Amino acid sequence: MTNLPILWGRGSSTNVQKVLWTCAELGIRLDHRPLAGEYGGNQSAWFLALNPNGTVPVWQEEDHVLFESQAIMRHLARRCGALYGSDTTAMAQVDCWLDWFALVFWPPIRMLFLDVVRDQKIAPDDPSASAALQKAATFTERAAGRIARSPYMAGPEFSLADIALTIGLNRMQGLSLGIPIPDPLRAWMEGQRRRPGFAFATKEEPDLPGHTGSKPNE
To answer: What is the pTM of this model?
Structure first.
């Protein structure tokens, strides 16, 4: 039995990638065990006992179990005293942009990823897909506006919010959805993708129609 904390989840999941990158930045050693997707296992009784939602990632450390990627990221950052701001005001800024990513920026891209690209439930020219594309473009412009005013999403220092946004932009770009990324935001994203933690987190990408993959310096 390993003494390292276990991260359950397939490496092609953006939510798993966010946790992997967080661990890399914080210097946390872990035992990454692929699960869900092509690996299966996420609806098995033992896994549902860890996370009744049957989703990944799940963080297991002795008797301590967490699910939801951004809860895991926050927990690890608090414990290590990094990536989460140096005071409560800075922490609140990180929370603002983490929540914005999860609740505003990511949902239309996730819909396009799941329903148009992966499962092909709807056609690319379906009105719902067109609406999602418009939302994604609008929110990408908002991210670009934020980066125009600040070196990082939550302020002057690299944080969890930058990990989340870079992973999301990377997946969006890899799917070739035609959503424009303004040049300043693209340059910012390339800077984050040169961090060693990005390469560690994105070694596995989904094999899907139209997906161009993601490497740090593409």
So the answer is: 0.93
